[in-house]
Amino acid sequence: MLLDRFFMSPEFGNSLSHVFRSSGIVEQRVGAPVGDRLHSGWPIRLIAGLCLVGTFAMVWGQPANGWAESPTLVTVVTAGGDEVQGTLIEIGQDGATVNMDSGDVQFQADELSLIRFAHPAKQPVPTVVKLMGGSVIWVTSVTWTGDQVTLAPARQARLVVPATDVLSIRFRSGNQATDPVWLGWENEPRRGDRLAVRRNEQALDSIDGTVIGVTPRSVEFQMGGNTIEAPLAKLEGVILSGSSSGNGQSGNNAAKSKSSIRVVDTSGSTFAAQSVSLAAADDSVEIVISGSVKHTVSLSQLSSIEYAGGVLALADAEIADSKFMGEFAGSASVSSRPVDQKREKRIQAWFAPVSTESATSESADLKSSDSRIQMNTPGEISFRVPDDYQRLVVSVRRSEQVDEFLPVDVEVWVDGQRKWNATLSDRQTLGLDLALADARRVTLKALPSQGSASGATADSKRNASDRGLNESLDAAVGLGGKLEWFSGRFLK
Question: Which domain of life is it from (predicted)?
Answer without folding.
Answer: Bacteria
